[in-house]
Specification:
GO biological process, one term: glycine biosynthetic process
Structural class: alpha/beta
Oligomer: single chain
Strand content: 15-25%
Organism: Coemansia spiralis
Family: Belongs to the threonine aldolase family.
Keywords: Lyase, Pyridoxal phosphate
Protein name: Threonine aldolase
Amino acid sequence: MSPTWDLRSDTATTPSPAMLAAMVSAPVGDDVLGEDPTVNELEHMVANLCGHESALFCVSSTMANQLAIRTHLCNPPESMLCHWDSHIFKYESGGTSLHSQAQMIPIKSSPNLSVQDIKDHFIMGNFLGHCAPTHLVALENTMSGVVMPIADIRDIGQFTRSMGALVHMDGSRLWNAAAGKKELREYATLVDSLSLCLSKGMGCPVGALLVGTRQFIDKARHFRKAFGGGWRQAGILAAAGIYAINHIWPTMPATHALAKRLAQGLEQCGYSLALPVHTNMVMIDTAKSPSVSTTELSQALKPKGVILGAVYEGSHLRIVLHHQIDDECVDMILATVNKLHLAASEPAK
């Protein structure tokens, strides 16, 4: 049976035998009562890695983000600044409006937000009742695979707090941005709360962490229960997270190097990158495709077991690598690209 390489997202991973073994052998208890030792271990581990007081294990990053927003925004009418392309704004089912009665103000900026963006859109008061004051700024790191500079996060945090507001980071792929424990803590301590995904790139079937102060997490835990997110013997899933942090997170630099090799090979055949390749994502600008379109490339690769996603955001083909994508897959893609490119370059007979 030929292998299948799914590059539509880094959520396409499956648990390895070693991860499954860790899950099966995990000691468990009732997490709603705070009695699951493996969940408690994971929460303590992640809070400590991030340099924060506490963490909360959730079913998904969407839940973690929405819990953060609901916990921070408790005095409507309020508004939140975020990136136009952010997951919180586009892909969380309108959760901020539904759960928190808050106005999201999206900012168009490429590829990440700057402190000037925040200053330009920050609402300081209600202007005689016409506006919803800004009480939260939401950042995303990475954004389409591009790492947000630490200096920008620091500047945004300093300005936002000087205005009496808070900063949350959707750090679903912060594991990719941070090469190790020191870097993760440096990013994490610059924000008031953050989410970390375990099913994007980390190989887990389920899970995310919300991190912040003890008081903040205690309140978020209350809302998690209200959202229907209280779970019992969740240590089976938490064990996958502990395994991923110890064994899969350290492999990310190799995945990033593979993504860069793929990007370089595609560029040599005439494809244009929509964004620089910092981590595990290669974004191809389909509007500037060479003679062989990305659609033709996708069709040619499918019988060979390589699955590429549909065009992303209208004009970009997003290719996402993870720890289960190997050199053989990248070699297959580049060989196919070169073959198609040569065929398209031959003069018609």
